[in-house]
Amino acid sequence: MFLAALSPKPNDDATVDAALVQQVLQRDMRAFEQLYDRHCRLVYGLVFRIVQQAGSAEEIVQDVFLQLWRNASQYDASRGPFLPWLLTMARNRALDTLRLKSERQRRREDQSEELPSICAVPQFEKELDQKRRASRIRELMTSLQPQQKRAIELAYFEGLSHTEIADTLNEPLGTVKSWIRNGLMRLREGLQATT
Amino acid sequence: MDQKRLDALKGRIAGHDVSTTDQFGELLEAYALGALDAPERGALEAHLATNCPQCAAALTEARWLVSQLAYTAPEAAPSDMLRGRLMKIVREEAAAEQAAQKYSIRATTVAPLAKPGVPYWMWAAVAALLVVAIYSTWDARRLSEQLRDINSRAIAELNSRAKIEEELAAVRREATILADPASVKIAMATSQPDTGPLQANWNPQLGLVVSGQKIPPPPGDRVLQLWLIPKAPGGKPLPSQAVRPDARGNFVLLVSNPPEQMAATKALAVTEEPAGGSPQPTTTPKWVGGVILSDTKD
C-alpha cells in the first residue's frame, strides 16, 4: 500500500521533461537538445552496462534519441513520466542488440518493435528528484542479499529468464524466483520508506 | 475462518475470482523485468488480456519499479562526437521536413456534378474542366517531385559546404591555439621504445590541440584516446576524444570543449582503446604529460 501523495513541485523533473517533449513535437530542436543533455548520461550508462562496448552503446543511444525525435507523439504525459519510458526503450534496444537468437526475443515483455508502454509513477515517488532517487536505488541494491542482487542484475542487464538465471548460477528454479521476487519487494519497500 | 478463505468468499460474492488475481499478481514484477519463462508469461498475458483492473494497475507500478534499476548502472558519459552526430541527423531531418512542407502543392478541387435537366453544353464544360483539373494535378505533382529533388540536392550542397566551412574553422582554431602565447605547452612523454613524444597546447579560451608525428598506429581498429586527469583527490580520468594516426603516423587532435578546465587538471594522458573510445581507461597510459601553469589565469 502506498503512502498518500503530496502535490508534485511545479518545476520537478517530470514536469520539465513533459514540457520539453511537447516542444519537440513542435519540432523545437533546442528542446530536443535539452532532453538529450538532461538524460544522455543515464541512458548511455544503462546501455553501456548491457552491451559492454562503447561503440555499440553510442549507436544504440543515438537510435533511441532518434526514435524520440521521430515518434515523440507516442509519449503521453498523462500516463506517466518521460524518463522511465525513455529508459525502458533504451533497455529494450540494448537487449535486442545483445540477443542473437529469436527464441530470446520473445521473452521481452514488449514484444513488438513499437515503443514501450508507459510506466505510471507510484504516488510516493513523485517527491524524489533524480539525484536522490539514483542514490537511494543504489543504496537499496547494495543492501540486498548478494544472490538477490545478482539474480536481478542478470535479469535486468542481460535479459535472462528465470530458467536461464538458474542455469547460470547453478541454483534451483524456485530459489531464483524467490530471490528476484523478494529482492524487488525489498526495493519497493525501501523506496516507500524513503518518503 | 482464516483471511484467505474470507477473501475468497468475498471474491465469490463480488463476482470475480480473487485467487486468479493473487496468483498472477506475484508474477507481475518478474514479467515487467522480462524474466518469466514462456509458459508463465503466456498464462499471465492471457489473464492480462481479460483487462483485469487490479493486475493492470499493479503492472504499471511494476514497470515503473523495474525502470528504476537503470540507476544502478555505473555512471558513464558518451563522447561529444555522439552528440554532434545525433544533432546533425536531426537538423537534416528537420530541414527536409520544412522543405517538403514548403514545396507541397495542393490539388485543385473539382466542381460538383450538375443536376439532371442541365443543358448538354454545361455537361461538356464540366467534362472539359475535369480534364484540365486532372492534367493540372498530374503536372503539379510532377513539378512538386522535381522541386523536391532540386531541394534535396540543394540541401546536400549546403551540408557539404557547411562541412567544409566547419573543417576550415577547425584548422584555423588549431593554428591559433598553436601560435597564441597564452597557450600552455604540455610535453607528453612515453616509455615506449622507438616512439616519439606527443605535444599538447592548451589555450584557456580556444581549447586543446594534441599532435604527434611518426606514431605507430594501434592494431586493428583501436584508437588513441585522450584523458584529462583531474586534480581533485580520487577524481576519475575524464574521457575526451579519440584519434588514429594517418598512414605516415601523424595526427592533430583538436578538442574545442575539454571536459575540465586547465586549472583543475593535473595531467593529460593517452591510452589505446577500442574503436569509438571508452568511458574509462581500459589500458595503461602510453603518454602522460603534467599540466604546469604559469602565473596566467584561465
Search tags:
heterodimer; A: 195 residues; mainly alpha; globular; disordered N terminus; B: 298 residues; alpha+beta; 4-stranded antiparallel β-sheet; 46% helix; 16% strand
Textual characterization of the structure:
The complex is a heterodimer of chains A (about 200) and B (about 300). Chain A has nine helices and no strands. Chain A is mainly α. The model of chain A is unreliable at about 1-10 (pLDDT under 50). Chain B is flat, with a radius of gyration of 34 Å. In chain B, helix 6 packs antiparallel against helix 7. The longest helix of chain B has about 60 residues, at about 120-180. In chain B, the strands form two sheets. Chain B has a four-stranded antiparallel β-sheet, with helices on one face. A four-stranded antiparallel β-sheet of chain B has the order 5-4-7-8, with no helix packed on it. With about 300 residues, chain B is α+β, with helices and mostly antiparallel strands. The interface between A and B is large, with 68 and 49 residues.
